[in-house]
Design a protein that fits this description.
Malate_DH_AS, binds 1,4-dihydronicotinamide adenine dinucleotide, L-2-Hydroxyisocaproate Dehydrogenase, Chain A, domain 2, 11 strands, EC 1.1.1.37, 339 residues, oxidoreductase, 46% helix, Rossmann fold, six-stranded parallel sheet, NAD, single chain, alpha/beta, Malate dehydrogenase, three-stranded antiparallel sheet
Length: 339
């Protein structure tokens, strides 16, 4: 019996994400909370003939929505408009995330918390510091969802590799076989996003397309913001990505073995987090690395990925480390003062 709560359930991400969760047989109860429209979204989904019991909760009902939740997904807050960076969202979303996480600390402190709200580089530190201040922080429970970067990297890698086989039609290739060749580490904004190719010769295969590939993974979100022309950022691909991550957490809660999955975590709280920090040559407290889950919580990260980087990837990591420091400090200061 697993209760999943979605906070921000009526939004562009929240609605399709809730739909996907309603279809998952591992979810027994789905609590949808938002400051608007959650009752309507929940009523709609509740007519779908799957096992999960789906209920909506209004603005003043966050306690009921969260009580007993094993997993909480947070896609609440404002999305980007053209010309904005994720950091531009900080002013509004920092307070929203702090408020929601405070409620989690009060009503379901053991829950696994999956943070989608941007800027993830800062909202995850906000969540951790908020819980620490309440004495309710359990390392491994707080996970920043960076899966959309992995999904984009898979798509773009396959597209570039197929484009190189010029005389063949793309339908002749099984793209899914190429997806396993890439993952993404670092943070979740522009230069902090670092695609890592698992087979290094692919860098020479991509040749002049390699830089373009990296750029598209790092700034793929901008393509969507521009195309939506003021109506927001990625919602459908993000719902899929958020669901993909949540599905692994749910499987892990059900004692299934799950492959390591990248997530932005508080390194000092994880078994080999300090070792990972040493490999990053930095005291950076947060970084996304493929994480091992047990009971839906991060127990350790795959720090060996940092040993196998190509010189190009190592440079990208160095740049990410530099930029992430200020994003993290900003989040910490928002909770602890001096902001
Ligand atoms: P949206 O505006 O469509 O939906 C946000 C929802 O949050 C709205 O329904 C709103 O009523 C609700 N909300 C606002 N304050 C709330 C509060 N205090 N408690 C509960 N609900 C509240 O936005 P969209 O497109 O769904 O994006 C949501 C967030 O996800 C944004 O911050 C966006 O930047 C982020 N995002 C993250 C990605 C990632 O890869 N981690 C990718 C794409 C977007």
């Amino acid at each position: 019996m697993v209760k999943v709560a979605v906070v921000g359930a009526s939004g562009g991400i929240g609605q399709p994400l809730s739909l996907l969760l309603k279809l998952n047989p591992l979810v027994s109860e789905l609590a949808l909370y938002d400051v608007r429209l959650a009752q309507g979204v929940a009523k709609d989904l509740s007519h779908i003939s799957t096992n999960a019991v789906c209920k909506g909760f209004d603005k003043d009902q966050i306690a009921e929505a969260l009580r007993g939740a094993h997993v909480v997904l947070i896609p609440a807050g404002v999305p980007r408009k053209p010309g904005m960076t994720r950091d531009d969202l900080f002013k509004i979303n920092a307070g929203i995330v702090k408020g929601i996480v405070t409620a989690i600390g009060q009503h379901c402190p053991d829950a696994r918390i999956l943070i989608i709200s941007n800027p993830v580089n800062s909202t995850v530190p906000i969540a951790v510091e908020t819980l620490k201040a309440m004495g309710k922080f359990y390392p491994g429970n707080v996970m920043g969802v960076t899966t959309l970067d992995v999904v984009r990297a898979e798509t773009f890698l396959a597209d570039y590799l197929i484009a190189q086989k010029k005389n063949s039609l793309s339908k002749q290739f099984d793209k899914t076989k190429m997806y396993k060749d890439v993952t993404v580490i670092g943070g979740h904004s522009g230069n902090t996003i670092v695609p890592v190719l698992k087979k290094k010769p692919l860098i020479s295969t991509l040749a002049s397309s390699y830089d373009e590939f990296v750029q598209r993974v790092q700034f793929g979100g901008d393509e969507v913001v521009k195309a939506k022309d003021g109506a927001g950022s990625a919602t459908l691909s993000m719902a899929l990505a958020g669901y993909r991550f949540a599905e692994q957490v749910l499987k892990s809660i059900h004692r299934e073995n799950t492959p390591p999955i990248p997530t932005y975590v508080y390194l000092p709280g994880i078994a080999n987090g300090v070792k990972a920090q040493a490999k990053l040559s930095s005291s950076l407290e947060y970084f996304s690395l493929p994480a091992n889950l047990l009971d839906g919580r991060v127990t350790s990260v795959d720090d060996t990925i940092l040993d196998s980087l190509s010189p190009q990837e190592r440079k990208l990591v160095e740049r990410a480390v530099k930029e992430l420091g200020s994003n993290i400090d900003k989040g910490k200061k928002f909770v602890n003062g001096n902001a």
